[in-house]
Amino acid sequence: MHSKLAxxxxxxxxxxxxxxxxxxxxxxxxxxxxxxxxxxxxxxxxMRDGLRxxxxxxxxxxxxxxxxxxxxxxxxxxxxxxxxxxxxxxGSAEVLAKDRFILVQQDVRGRNxxxxxxxxxxxxxTDKTQLTDIDESTDAWDTIEWIIRNVxxxxxxxxMMGISYxxxxxxxxxxxxxxxxxxxxxxxxxxxxxxxxxxxxxxxxFLPHAFNFLAMFGQSLDDPKHDDARPFRHGTPDGxxxxxxxxPLSNAETRYFKGQIAxxxxxxxxxxxxxxxxxxxxxxxxxxxxxxxxxxxxxxDAEDLFGALExxxxxxxxxxxxxxxxxxxxxxxxxxxxxxxxxxxxVTFRAATAQFYRExxxxxxxxxxxxxxxxxxxxxAYVFETGTDQWRRFGTWPPSGVTRTTWFLQPEGRLAISAPxxxxxxxxxxxxxxxxxxxxxxxxxxxxxxEYMVAxxxxxxxxxDVLVYSTPELxxxxxxxxxxxxxxxxxxxxTDADWVVKLIDVYDPRHPDADPNPTNExxxxxxxxxxxxxxxxxxxxxxxxxxxFEPGKVTRVRWVMPDVFHTFRRGHRLMVQVQSSWFPLVxxxxxxxxxxxxxxxxxxxxxxxHRVYRGGGSVSSISAQVLPQRKASGS
Length: 635
Fold this sequence. Notes:
Blueprint: H1 31-37, E1 38-46, E2 52-60, E3 67-74, H2 91-98, E4 102-107, H3 136-150, E5 154-163, H4 165-174, E6 181-187, E7 200-201, E8 204-205, H5 207-217, H6 239-246, H7 250-257, H8 264-269, H9 275-278, E9 292-298, H10 305-318, E10 324-329, E11 343-344, E12 347-348, H11 353-371, E13 381-385, E14 390-394, E15 403-409, E16 415-416, E17 427-432, H12 458-461, E18 467-470, E19 478-492, E20 498-506, E21 527-536, E22 555-568, E23 573-579, E24 608-613, E25 621-627
Parallel strand pairs: 3-4, 3-5, 5-6, 6-9, 9-10, 10-13
Antiparallel strand pairs: 1-2, 2-4, 7-8, 11-12, 13-14, 15-16, 15-25, 17-24, 18-23, 19-22, 19-24, 19-25, 20-21, 20-23
Helix pairs in contact: 2-11, 3-4
């Protein structure tokens, strides 16, 4: 989900209604150039229930041949409004515009200039017997139907695309898709807001992301076509301090939001995976797909990595024979749609990966299915392998030929593929104090800084409330391709606990620094986060029915972290860190079981001792799929 604030403040970039960059960028088309090449029209398009949605159509002035249509539906805004007001286009928008498509942007129902009431992730309706039985799939259908009947100069083929929330609307459009819809690209689409996207990961609440996003998006504006939502003023650049002083989650409403921010009360009222969240899970509805689909995501997307992977998997499982591509690159949220994509923080990828995607993957996909251009044959999975920094092509994802390998937590901080030989009851122990939670970053930020997905973890490894396990230096490259499974045997002196596991690539001590190196980051021994995920312990057996821990009782906690495609190079080490807080990225667990953490009182937040067991019948491990190394030609 995109806020309208700068990334430098820890929020996400501003993207247009196309889900693409529209501010000034390197070699971007400015508004004057767009107006030179395109004519703009605005329409209020009627839906089947009589409401009308504001829709902007950009027609290429070169109308020498019929052209396909590309639509994006957005809750953010189809600005600027007015037939004489033009945006600037950069990134994907510029690449597509230069190739000549009829470009359409639409404010979704209830947002900005469109009629109706807005509903977050409006649930899909399986039974539609009346004209009032609407959802986002019917609005997409009605929009396509109107465009085919009323917009001149098209070739009868329609594509849809969008990043983040617009990605969700693209996913909704492919369900029982309109016959004219021939190609769709959900990019970082939201799939499930409780299990893995945006606000919750395995039931754990991503506090600064939800707080900061909703503080803006949830505002009611007098003139949404022209007024801007006001950024929340934290009064400090230190998010750790701000959210710690906030105290229990209920204080956000009483101190700051005071009934003025939409959807925050719904979060508080639905702490478990109840019907409210289940009906917003789009995955079981991704059926009857009649168009080619290319789902796009970033390996380091802090928001909707889960959604991209799960959208691809759900379409693949429920639509045999459909053209279904997955593209995953080394990107932050939406990072493929703009910029170079050559680095995140101190981690470089030695290639302009975003530019390559826009010109060699995205444009050819739409040209193939909307313009009958067969010149490029895309693989099912076009994925970037981090660590070796190269694009790979596979016939499926995860790729065939992988084998599952398990690494066990061992004594003295060791990590090995052999099960430990110790007897029952051996463990490592650490304190957990809600008053002093483990930071998710060593730097100061008030938001969910995107760099955390690759950040150096050396600051955490030195803390007494973080357990660290590591392999020896690797004797050969090790490539992991697919989901990472966590299997812990734990106990706590409290009655509730979160568990956070981080998979880390420890660089060679002699690893050269980046060049240029504006932050003076030293990469020798750098502990790069490859994947990290929390698990709210109360949901270990059921997201619908939380249950407390029995103090001192050994308890199994398992979860699956989103896929990785990363090579740990020879001379590097594979490291696992285990902790119980990740603040303020994840809200604090009071460690006293309460029915609803949103209603926890200050006295419920208590210190606890946690144990992770690693011997006998109670072993702890992580496992992942290992891809064999490619042999050199002629070997």
